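Closing statement on the uracil sub-project.
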Amino acid sequence: MADFDKMWEDFEFVCSNCNACGLRESAKNVVIYRGSRTAPLMIVGEAPGAEEDEEGKPFVGKSGRLLQNLLEAYGFEEKDYHICNICKCRPPENRRPEPSEISACKKNLAIQFGLVRPKVILLCGSTAYEGFFGEKPVMKDVRGRFIEKKGYLIMTTYHPAFALRNPSAKIPIYEDVGRVLDKLRELGLVSSK
Ligand code: URA
């Protein structure tokens, strides 16, 4: 087995056996990623919901379908993105993960970043932003612009679940994903679509 596959296998084993917070107790699956193992774009959401917990993959429920439609509308292919969450286990009743749960999951997320080595990160929603920047955002102020941190170009947008409740938010999400594609093209990291 190639080294990289072995590193992924070890990483998935570590995640699946993680008990760093209480969420694993009630979760059916540890939801690690979908998409490519190396991708120029990493998309980070909040935490798995019921469907994600069931399937063991992030963003496969209603908000995932909205996200997927947007990605496909822009011509993104699976090789271009790696989708994951700030927390890998479903919080009961889909509550927001607690700061202690986010911090317990950070170590594995950092390893995941080291494996995927994205250049651009799209944070979906305020929990993902808080997980990265350690403060609550005013979404309308932070969305839509790149922040450079530790060599990553980070864009924040609304969470797709928010856009399901507030359909007018689909427009800014659409614009922000477009900005992400423009940046990746500018960097020569996706083929022109
Ligand atoms: N919401 C998220 O933030 N992540 C998922 O995987 C699904 C819904």
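Residues 2-186 form a domain with the Uracil-DNA Glycosylase, subunit E fold (CATH 3.40.470.10). With this model delivered, the sub-project is considered complete and its resources will be redirected to Aim 3.
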